[in-house]
Design a protein that fits this description.
four-stranded mixed beta sheet, 38% strand, 108 residues, globular, binds copper (II) ion
Amino acid sequence: MKTKITLLIALAVTLVSTMLSGCGSNESGNSLNVKYLAFVPATKTVRAGTTITWTNNDQTAHQLMSKKLFKSKPLNPGQAYSFKFSKKGEHSYMCSIHPYMQAKIIVE
Ligand SMILES: [Cu+2]
């Protein structure tokens, strides 16, 4: 009985640590903040094949739009949009609702 409990605890610890490490490796560098009518950071450099996720943490809706590459739906506060950048180069984008909100993703 005691060994069974020990085994269960070991299993649980392994599971939790696997989940935690899985989260940390992918999420950290590839998320962008949309707040105070700006994209933060305004310029971001990533490797080809990276998926960027923008989260609207503002009080108002925003709609992301690049010249050729992507266009999101209007994002209400709390909503997010993801796009995978496979094409190298500088990709400027803006908010179609607030055209003065401009930023770019540099793909290397
Ligand atoms: Cu906007």
